[in-house]
Design a protein that fits this description.
Elements: H1 13-36, H2 43-50, H3 54-60, H4 69-86, H5 99-111, H6 116-132, H7 136-161, H8 168-189, H9 201-214, H10 216-220
Length: 221
């Protein structure tokens, strides 16, 4: 999964370095959790693998489980940025896609690996979600990342729909889309399907979004 900058002024060099350090620590934590398990990995192990001092680790993260949050959140940021881009008029002068179509396209694009590095990132996520089933603290990090993603999605959907941020249907849509992605990732992580293909997270997310588009009667039929 790739981080994508979104809107606003360009972050300062200090902010970019801080973010890069956090991502490096997150990758080291994910790799060690996948190889050794959460219980057999310490904060000291993660700091050493990331090439930073232990005090640097604790400057950014309270616990070893917290360290993976940047890795989990970059994928969500990627698809939100893609959604914002799709809502803009097409470069050829054609119309922008409708909001439901833009949401689905951005989610599918973000969850479809574009090469070995993104496949590896998805496999790390699968290992983390499997570990989260047995580790309550890691599971709480996953839920927190999803809650934060939902909150960040609300103003984006509200602006695209021309509604206020506190509009009930906008908040419902943000919650539903976020949970559709979360459930798709959790379902995929529980099996052994490859990151791409008809049983990959992108295909599962598209299936969930189609079900949501049908409304509650179709879901409960």
């Amino acid at each position: 999964m790739v981080t994508a900058e979104s809107g606003g002024s360009r972050p300062s060099l200090t902010a970019r370095r801080k973010a890069a350090t956090q991502v490096e620590i997150a990758r080291a934590a994910a790799r060690l959790f996948a190889e050794r398990g959460v219980d057999n990995t310490t904060a000291e192990d993660i700091a050493a693998a990331a090439g930073v001092a232990l005090r640097t680790f604790y400057r950014y993260f309270r616990t070893k489980q917290d360290a993976v949050a940047p890795l989990l959140s970059t994928g969500a940021q990627h698809w939100r940025d893609a959604l914002a881009a799709l809502e803009e008029p097409a470069g050829d002068g054609g119309p922008a896609p409708g909001l439901p179509e833009a949401v689905e396209r951005s989610v599918v694009d973000a969850l479809t690996p574009g090469g070995p590095e993104e496949e590896r990132a998805l496999e790390w996520t699968r290992a983390l979600l499997r570990a989260a089933r047995e580790d309550a603290t890691l599971r709480a990090v996953w839920y927190r990342v999803n809650q934060e993603s939902e909150e960040l999605l609300v103003p984006l959907l509200a602006a695209a729909a021309g509604r206020p941020d506190d509009d009930l249907t906008v908040r419902l849509a943000a919650a539903a889309v976020t949970d559709a992605i979360r459930l798709s990732m959790e379902t995929w992580s529980a099996g052994d399907a490859p990151p791409g293909g008809e049983d990959g997270p992108a295909a599962l997310a598209a299936r969930c979004l189609h079900a949501l588009a049908g409304g509650l009667p179709d879901l409960l039929r």
